[in-house]
Amino acid sequence: MSSTNTAPRRSLHAFDIFFLVVAAAAPLAAVASNGALGVLMGNGVGMPGSYLLAGLVLILFAIGFIRMSPYVKHSGAFYAYVRHGLGPLAGGAAAFVAIVVYGMMVIGSVGGFGFFASVFFAENLGIDLSWKAWGAICLVITAIVGYREITLGARLLAALLTLEVLILVVLTVAVLAPTSPAAVTFGSFSLPNIVSGSFGVGLMFAFVSFLGFESAAIYSEEARDGHRTVSRALITAVVFIALFYAITMWAVVLAFGEDKVMAAASENPGTLVFRAFAQYTHPAFLVAVQFLMVTSALAATLALHNAAARYLFALGREGMLPNVLGSLHARLQSPHVASITITVVSLIAVMLFAIADADPLMTLLSSTFGLAALGIIILQAVTSLSVAVFTWKNRDREAGSLFQLLIALVATIGLGTAALLVMKNYATLTGSLGLLDYAPWLLPIAAVLGVIVAMRSGQATQLSEA
C-alpha cells in the first residue's frame, strides 16, 4: 500500500525527536564502553572533561545546523545541508556516505543487542540462546516498529531511554551522596588532566559517544512545527548528552578514586561501570543495569533504523534511488518500503557475519561502529563547512552573519580535527580485524558513487538552474 502523497504526516513533537536522537546515541552503552575505554586508553581521569570539549564543538555545529535549517525544506539531513551549501555533487557524495554509515550502525547495533541479550538471559534467567537468535529477534522487533507510524517508535524509545537514564542517575546519586565513601574531587575537569595521557584518543572516544545526535534533522518533515521543533530537539539533545556523559563518567571516576580508576579500568574496561554499580548500589541495580544494556542496544537499533530508512526515503523521492523508496504507506504515512529495504539489507549483512561465526562484539559491532564513527564525523565536518559557505554567500542579507561564520568555521576545524583523530587511531577504535581493516575504503567509494548518481539523475542541472 503506497500513497501518492510524498510528504509524511507531521506528528512528532520536540520531545519525540529528542528521544529518537538520544536513543541513537545509546547513553548507557556509550558510557560503559567508550567512556571506560577513554579512561584506559586515553586521558584517564580527564575523560569527563573530554565529553565537555566534544560537546562544546558539537553545540557550535548544532548552532550552524539550526541557522541553516529554515532554508532546507526536506529530510535528508547531511545530504540536504551539504547540497544546499556546497552544491548537488557534494550533496550526492554525502548522501551515499550517510547511507553506508547509518546502515553500518544498524547492523552493528543488532550484533550488540545479540551479545548483551545472550549474556544477560543466560546468566540471569537460564535462557541459553546464541547471539544470532537474539539478533534475529531484534531484527523482527525493529522491522515491525520501523514499518509503522513514527510516533510508535518514539514512544517506545521514550520509555526505554528514560529507564536507561534513570539507572545511571542512580549510580551518580549513590556515588555523590553525603554518606558515600567516595571522595568528591574535581580533577576530571582540570585542564592538565583533560590534556594528559593520550588526549587525542580520549577525545576520539568522546566524539564517538555522540554518534547519531545529528539525526534530528532527518525528521524535519515529520515535526509538528518543522525546523523550529527540530532546532529545539537538536540543541536540547546535544547539551543533555554532553552534560549527562560528563557527570556520569565523573561519578564512575570518583567511584574508584582519581588515583585508582586507571588500574580499575585496566582490569577489564568492559565491566568498569558494572563494578561501580556493584560497589555503590543494591545488587538489584546491577541486574537492572545489565538488562538495560540490552534495551539500550534495542533502542539504538530502532532509532538508527528509522534514520536510515528516512535517508533512503529522501533519496528515492528525489530520484537518486528507485522512486519506490520514496513512497509512503497510505494509512500509516510511514516510509514503509525504505524501512523494509533497511531490514532486508541488515538481515543479509548480519547473516554473513553469523555464517562467518564472527564475534558479535569484537568483530561485528567494532568494525561497523568504527567505520560509522569515521564517516559520521567526516560528514559533520563537511556539513559544518557547508554552513560556513552558505553563511559567507548570504553575509550581506542577515545581521550577525560574520559571527555565525566564525562559529561555523570553529566547528569545522574542531570536527576536522576529530576526523583526523579517528583516522589516526582507527586500529585503536576497532582492533585488528583482518580484511575488515580495509572497511574505511567504503566511504570514498560511496562518495564517488554518490557523485555519479547525482550527475546521472539530473540533480546537478536541476539545482544549478533553481
Describe the 3D structure.
The protein has 466 residues and is mostly helical. Helices cover 73% and strands 0% of the residues. InterPro entries: AA/rel_permease1, APC_superfamily. This is APC family permease.
Rounded to an integer in angstroms, the radius of gyration calculated over CA atoms is 21 Å
SSE-based structural type: mainly alpha
Low-confidence stretches: 1-5, 459-466
The CATH superfamily appears as: Amino acid/polyamine transporter I
Would you tell me the overall average pLDDT?
Answer: 83
What is the number of E strands? 0
Strand residue percentage: under 5%
Question: How far is it from the N-terminal to the C-terminal residue, by CA?
Answer: 33 Å
Number of helical elements? 19
Biggest pleated-sheet summary:
none
The SSE order reads HHHHHHHHHHHHHHHHHHH
Helix percentage range: over 70%
Indicate the overall shape.
Answer: globular
CATH C-level name: Mainly Alpha
- How many individual domains? 1
**Quaternary form:** single chain
> What is the annotated CATH architecture?
Up-down Bundle
Organism: Mesorhizobium retamae
InterPro entries: AA/rel_permease1 (IPR002293), APC_superfamily (IPR050367)
Membrane topology: Multi-pass membrane protein
Main location: membrane
